Amino acid sequence: MSTATSKTESPAPPPAEGSPSVGSLLVQGLRSNMRQYGMLVALALIIVIFQIWSDNILLRPLNVTNLVQQNGYILILAIGMMIVIIAGHIDLSVGSLVAFIGAAAGVMMIKHDVPWGLAVVLCLLLGAVAGAWQGFWIAYIGIPSFIVTLAGMLAFRGGTQILLDGQSLSPFPDGFEKMSTGFIPEMGPYTQYHNPTMVIGLVVCAAAVWQEWRGRQQRAAYELDVVPLGLFFVKCAAIVAAVMAFTMTLSSWHGAPYGLLILAVLFVLFSFVMRNTVIGRHVYALGGNQPAAKLSGVRDKRVTFMVFVNMGVLAALAGLVFAARLGSATPSAGLNFELEAIAAAFIGGASASGGVGTVLGAIIGGLVLGVLNNGMSLVGIGTDYQQVIKGLVLLAAVGFDVWNKRKVGS
């Protein structure tokens, strides 16, 4: 009896001194993801500013669809460029490779009547060969990636001129052009929204929430700090709200374009590879500290080679998407695309020293540039001033990264 009384009256044990509070968890989470969260906030502010400035034109369904289609190929390049930069390298040839693949696709489909499906496969293989060629010189011969890809930039641009003989080729087959300009067909009963797109949006919401929950469970299993359950639900609700707002905007027009599906598949695939596979961890290790990675058993030459093969395939895919949207193969295709991709990667959180960055960050960086381009065009800002503004945004993003690293180091 006395034992029961003592148990009842005994005060609750005080929290352990090392247990983190809600505030400390929030601060820790913000610090560890400061660059990514900062770019998300910047993207939201840019959208709000141009939505007001353009008299609510920016977020109209037609313009949102145009944003997706106009920037799809840059986002594809940004994913590959992010991985290249994480590995501690750079690729200056992707813009010229985009043009070269578009020219090759035009020659195959228009001049030689190759079925467009077969031509797409052959072009992707050609991109892999181009990436392997550059990866060989970088990984196994030891020539710096800057030099190799600069040579590739000149060679692929020259190859484009040779294939097209300085002329444009058009038109592409309708099925090929729909890869970039087409939309998912409508199915099901009539509603105010595009049914398949709404279903895809709901699936994306469910997958995103499940991924967040799975990540939380994994951190808890390893006894790492996790945010309180209430804040976790707030984060999930914000993700669902953003995805559904975007989905409903697209669904109120023609639905999701095929280009968005291609980008979504790439995002899911490469996010998984970089976070959950051995090769992804090796890429981070190689870019973070190459000597230590080699001592740990990372096959640095093979990893570097595969990174550039992957970049070649993604550049080929971007070239196909761009050619399909343009409806022709032109010698001037892909000009400055490498700079846009590099800027998107650095704005999205890549580090010039390598070893840092995410696929999501590449998408965010690409969207920042895309919304800036579209918004400034809507309000009538000239292309000369647009270049100045984008340059300042890139400088500010990298400067913020340098400042953040110095602050953490101190």
UniProtKB/TrEMBL annotation:
Keyword Transmembrane appears in the UniProt entry: yes
Location of region: Disordered: 1-21
Keyword Cell membrane belongs to the record: yes
Transmembrane segments: 37-53, 73-102, 114-131, 137-156, 226-250, 256-274, 303-324, 344-372
Compartments reported by the entry: Cell membrane
Membrane topology: Multi-pass membrane protein
InterPro entries cross-referenced by the UniProt entry: ABC_transp_permease
Keywords: Cell inner membrane, Cell membrane, Membrane, Sugar transport, Transmembrane, Transmembrane helix, Transport
NCBIfam families with a match to the protein in the record: GguB (NF040906)
Protein's job: Part of the binding-protein-dependent transport system for D-xylose. Probably responsible for the translocation of the substrate across the membrane.
Protein name: Xylose transport system permease protein XylH
Source organism (scientific name): Streptomyces hygroscopicus
